[in-house]
Amino acid sequence: MCGIVGYCGPRVVSQVLIEGLRRLEYRGYDSAGISIADSQQFTTVKKTGKIKELSAAVPEDIQGLSGIGHTRWATHGEVNDTNAHPHLDGSGKVVIVHNGIIENYEALKSKLKSQGTVFVSETDSEVISHLIAQYYEGDLEHAVIKVLPLLKGTYGLAVMHTSEPGKIVGARNGSPLVLGIGDHEMFIASDVTAILQYTKEAVYLNDGELVAMTKDGYKTFDINNNEISKQIEQINWEIEQIEKDGFPHFMEKEIYEQVASIKRAFTGRLSLDTASGHLGGLDMLPQELHSIERVKIIAAGTSYYASLIAAYLIERIARIPATAELSSEVRYKNPIVERNSLYFAVSQSGETADTLYAMRELQRKGAKVLGVCNVVGSTIARESNGGVYLHSGPEIAVASTKAFTSQLTIFYIFTLILARMRHMAFEDGLEFIKGLQSVPSHIEQILSKTDELQSLARKYYKHTNVLFLGRGLNYPVALEGALKLKEISYIHAEGYSAAEIKHGPIALINEETPSLFIVPDDALRDKVISNMKEVKARKGPLIAFAVEGDTEVAEIADDVFFVPKANELMYPFLMVIPSQVFAYYCAIELGRDVDQPRNLAKSVTVE
Ligand code: M6R
Question: Could you tell me the CATH superfamily of domain 3-235?
C-alpha cells in the first residue's frame, strides 16, 4: 500500500527520500513523488511508474532542509502524475503526503470549492492540504490539530509549511507512522525499512498521536496539544536483511531463508526435558491455558491459510475446538465472544486493516486476543493482549512465503503446549518435537532439487487454469498453493479439498486443465489417490507432490515431485515449499514482476 518517508537534516534530502521510497517499493505502488523544502519554497516532483523514473526526474542541484516523499497505491482517482502525492494547497505553502482514506472528502471538497478553492487532483487526500492552509495562523502544529477532527477515516500524514522550513508535522490515525532518531537528523516513515539504513532508534506513534520534528529533535503530542512522552525502541533488523543478497528476487531469497527462519521460530521454544514448548509472549499462566475451551483465529490471505492449518492441528492434536475465520468477515458479523475462548490475530505485517479492525471489535466485546506477527512494533503486535513474534526477518516480496512456515511453527508449538497439558504422553510429545526439528533439514533437501520444479513450471506455465487439491492438514496447503500461483503468475488457480471436486470443480477437468494433487502418506492418502483417478479418467493432466518411494502415485500422475518422508503432521511444511517454488518459476517463465505483482500491496492497510 502507500508509503511515506520524511527527513529533516543535513544529508542531501532528495537522496534520503528516493532511497527511502526505493525501500518501500515492496509494499506495492503505482506512482511516487517528493517535495523538498528550502528556506522559501517547495520543489515537488511526481511521477507515475517506478522510483527510478521519479529519481531521473529529480533535479540534481536541488537543495533542502527537509522533505517528504510518498509511494501511492491508487484508491481515489486514476493512476497519473497529478493524483500522485505530495499534494499542495492552492498557494503552494502547504504540502502533505497521506496514507489511508478520508471517507468524508466529498463533503469537505464541496465546501472548500464553494469557498473558491480550486482542486487539481481527484484524490481524497488533497482536501487535507487546503484545510491546513485555511487554518494556518503561523503555527503548523496548531493548524494540523484544528484540521484532524474534521477528517473522518484513516490517516498517516506528514505535512510541511513554507513559513516553517525544516519542520515536518506527522499525525496518525489507523495508518502506521514511525519516527527515526538520528544525530542532528530526524526521519519519519510508514515502515522502518525506509529508515533502517540511517538509524536503529525508533518511536512508534499510536492512533491519535502527532509529532513535530526538526533536525534538532522532536515533540510528540495529542490532539489537545498535550505533550506525550514516548519510549524509544531499538529496531532489531539489519540492513542486509532487506537486500537481495545475490538472489534475483526477494521471493526466491525468502523461500530459501525458510530453513533458517523456521529454526529461529522454534529455537528456545521447545524443551526435550518436558516434551513440551514455551511461548513466553503469550503471558498466560498454566491454569489459564488449562481453562481454554475454544481457540479462534482471525487472519487474511496467506496468514488465513496458515491459521486454517493451525485450527485443524489444534482440534486434532490438542482436542480443543478451534476455528479460523477471515478477519474481514469477523469484523462485520457482530461476533459472539464466548467465555474461555482464546483468540489469535495472525498477520505477517501486523498492519492488515481487516485483521486489526476485527481484533479491536473482538476486544471491545471482551475477548483476549493474542497477536502472531512478524513486524516488531506493528499495530497488531502492540494492541493485542500478548502474543508471539515470528522472528522471520523482513519479508519483502509481496507473496508471503517464510511468514507462512513460521506462523505454522508457532502454532505447532502452541498445539504441543496445549496437548501436553491435557492428554498427550511424554513420548508422543518428544516425537512431535523431533518431527518439528527435522523440518528445516527436510526443506533443505527439497530446495536442493528446485531444478525439477523449474522443469515442471516450464511444462505447465502456458496453462490458463490449474486446480490445487489436498485433504486434511494439506487442504489449506492446496489453497495456499493456488494463491501463490495466481498472485505472482496471474494463472487462474483454485484450491479445493480433493474430496470436493466431485461436487462441482470436476466439471472444469479436461486436457487443458492440470490438477496438482498434494499426497502425503497419511490416513487420507488412499482417498486422495481415488480422487486422482477420477481426474485421470477425464483426461485431466495430473501433477503430484508426493512422498519419496510412493510408486503408486508416480504411476498415476503425469509428473511427480517427491518430498522426504517425515512425521505425517509435518507435511504442510514440506508440501508448501514446492508450491512456492513452482509458482515462482511459472511467474519467471511468464516474465512477471515476481516481487511486486500487479495490483497487489504487501501491507493492506485499507479495508
Ligand atoms: O500481513 P498479513 O499477514 O496480515 O497479510 C495478509 C495478506 O494480505 C497476505 O498474506 C497476502 O495474501 C499475500 N499477498 C499472500 O502472499
Answer: Aminohydrolase, N-terminal nucleophile (Ntn) domain (3.60.20.10)
219 within 8 A of 212, measured Cβ to Cβ? yes
> Cα 49 from chain centroid?
22
Fold annotation for 449-597: Rossmann fold (3.40.50)
pLDDT in tens, 354-379: 999 999 999 999 999 999 999 988 99
Per-residue pLDDT reduced to its tens digit, 429-463: 999 999 999 999 999 999 999 999 999 999 999 99
Helix or strand holding residue 598 (H, E): none
How much is the pLDDT for 482?
98
Nearest-10 crossing angle of helices 571-589, 450-460: 50
Active-site residues, by number, are 2, 602
Ligand 1 site, CB within 6 A: 300-303, 347-349, 352, 355, 398-400, 483, 487, 600, 603-604
Q: Bridge partners of 57?
A: none
Q: What does CATH list as the number for 247-444?
A: 3.40.50.10490
Measure 511 CA to ligand 1 centroid, in angstroms: 33
pLDDT digits (tens, 9 = 90+) for 303-315: 999 999 999 999 9
pTM beyond 0.85:
yes
426: burial class by Cβ within 10 Å (0-12, 13-18, 19+)?
exposed
